[in-house]
Amino acid sequence: MPASRRFPLLLIGAFLALYFVWGSTYLMIRIGVESWPPMLMAGVRFVMAGALLYGFLRWRGVANPTWVQWRAAGAIGFLLLSCGNGGVTLAEHAGVASGVAALAIATVPLFTLLFGLWFGHRNSRLEWAGIFLGLAGIGLLNLGSNLQASPFGALLILFAAAAWAFGSVWSKRLPLPQGAMAAACEMLLGGAILLIGSALSGERMTHMPSAAGWGALAYLVLFGSILAFSAYMYLLKHVRPAAATSYAYVNPAVAVLLGIAFAGEQVGAEECLAMAVIISAVVLIGVPQWRKAPPPVAPTADASLPGKMCK
Q: Could you tell me the pTM of the whole model?
């Protein structure tokens, strides 16, 4: 197949993976925590995914990171995966619906702009409008029955979004490994921290996971962690950043629909209104990025290989 024809097909496939695979991980987490202790499941997920990706990259000849790079990857892995994804997993275990969890995580761009102020970023009027609109959406979301029924889960999910946002902003200033090796190291160390937290908190396997529990874990390792992340790295290299992060608009709707269809979840009027408000806020924040973003980079012959991607 000619390279020019293959490139659009890879773009389409990457977008589909990002929209639907990442959108479906919230349901898979909900299924998984019915069989697994939450931190144990998240830790096993990231250690396995990180080990597979690390082994593949080393086999491809990618250099082992330095001690300084491992330390930086550990800090970002702690924020993004231990606190961010671990918080989502704990919140869903506490009773937060998967669709509502995805909607709360859609506030990450709002927190990203707020933390950007700390590092010297200046927001435009449109971005400030998006921040205030998003905060109103968070207020509406907390009026819904899902988060009111689990105040602890509500705090966890907002903490997870804030931790992910801060880690994303801080990561640009740290000496992380190049390309996908950064993700491999972050998953290995972030997953290890989750396993330590699981042991210290007294989590125990009281029974063997069900077939659905094993299937959810396998899906999260192979598709949610390795495939979707590789697709995200590919898009960051070949399209505008605002396009690559457009999953924030789509994932909540995918998660809500899957939760209703397969988990019997209920979404109230307040939460539907909050979804519209929060997604509108994220769109407002994205408009300046579309205006300022540079044109996409021309494709290379082996750009689809994880070892060749740049974060």
A: 0.81
The mean-pLDDT minimum among 61-70, 123-132, 145-154, 263-272 falls in 145-154
CA angle 292, 245, 105 (to 5 degrees): 130
Assess contact for 286 and 109: CB atoms under 8 A: yes
Q: How far apart are CA 39 and CA 214, in angstroms?
A: 15
- Number of neighbouring beta carbons within 10 Å of residue 273: 15
Q: Give the type of residue at 71.
A: R
pLDDT in tens, 256-308: 888 888 888 877 787 788 878 888 887 777 666 555 544 444 433 333 333 33
**Total domain count, the chain:** 1
Name every residue whose Cβ is closer than 8 Å to that of residue 225 and which is 6 or more positions away in sequence: 45, 46, 49, 187
Is 98 in contact with 255 (CB distance < 8 Å)?
yes
| Domain that includes residue 176, residue range | 3-308
Angstrom CA distances, 113 to 6, 125, 152, 166, 243, stand at 35, 12, 25, 9, 17
pLDDT tens digits, 166-218: 988 888 889 999 888 998 999 999 999 999 999 999 999 988 999 999 999 99
Reading the block at residue 145, the tokens are 């029955």
